[in-house]
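TA notes. Do not distribute before section.
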Amino acid sequence: MPTLVLLAQIATSCMLTGLIWTIQVVHYPLFASVGADRFAEYEASHSRLITLVVGPLMLAEAATAIAFLAIRPPSVPMWIPLAGAALLAVVWLTTAFVSVPCHARLADGFDVEAHRRLVDTNWIRTAAWSARAAVLLLAGWLALNAVRGDG
């Protein structure tokens, strides 16, 4: 069971890390190219559709992060699930208190300042998810080495 929890953590974190990099580098910057006349409709579609992708992954990641705090392979030191949980808290708090309010402002139409804030502050989530993926990949490496006897 600890290995399954770890693998689920690695999978969800790496999927979300790839997704956030795509959003940060490609998707959010392109918001400025949509055009003012169609932006509110575009933002509504973006919010609805991205939630279908991100929502289940974030919930699965949160559930396995909580489980990983209690159930981890013996070769994985406790600081790893604690660091992972702290980084996940950064992601969730930034999402709730920075990204969601930016999207709420953009829902009324394109706003240069809200867009700039969204792009600039999304680097917080991008960095946190990237660091989280790295920490969890380290945990996977430690667990694999212990099983192989290299630990």
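Switch to the second chain here.
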Amino acid sequence: MTAVPVLEIGGTHVSAALLAPPWVAERVHRSPLRADGTSAQIVEDLRRSAAVLGPQPGARWGVAIPGPFDYTAGIGRFTGVGKFDSLRGFALGDVLTRELDAAGIVFVNDAHAFGVGEWRAGTTRGHDRVLVLTLGTGVGSCFLDRGIPVESGPDVPPEGRADLLTIDGAPLEDTVSRRALLARAGDAPDVDVRHLAERALAGDAAAQVLFTDAFTALGHALAPWVRRFGASLVVVGGAVAASWDLVAAPLRAGLSGGRVDLPVVPASSAHAGLVGAAWWAHRSGGGTT
């Protein structure tokens, strides 16, 4: 079949790839993205990234993008998230359809795309209900029921979003996020989470406490929803999850302290979001592979 062109939009970069069954991302192109730029600048960065794949006239594109976003209408709903502010109310779907000479743009939440990609990769094999987390700038989540994201109902948080939960009455991401970790560290502006992780892994006790406290708290916050959803596995990906030794133990401890004892495993693919976006676009066009 014809390969599906896909874009995965992050807070600092955009990745592009062409994928076809069995949905393995073999060649991925990554380029900078001005998430705090104007809508015209963001569109230009996306167009430049897409151009690396060569002309794709009449193709149906899969695009993974963070929320809040109207995925059906292709319109940004960003407000107060510190990025993509210029896309608030902006008809990104219409503009990209025109700029890419596309038959259509199929948008999917980036965490959902990642979850579907992990399911396609076989990470969740043997488990019907799984919670997939992406830990990077914030906390992305995908409550998967046999490979399909669950976004509503009594078994999941509002919109299926862990980031809408609270810890001690405050938004979860005031405790667990890149912003929260850096604020607690109180370091110089040029210090990033990866620097904190390097220090923690080298034995810096203060840096270790930052990660332990944050991810134990995350486990406590998630535990009631993991029980309610009936998840039998938690899969963790994202940039912060690259420091697995700092994340896994406190997350497990938080979940078990919340009376949940289940496997917590790292994601198997750094490109799961691209795989999920490609499969979702293919599925939306009537394919089932």
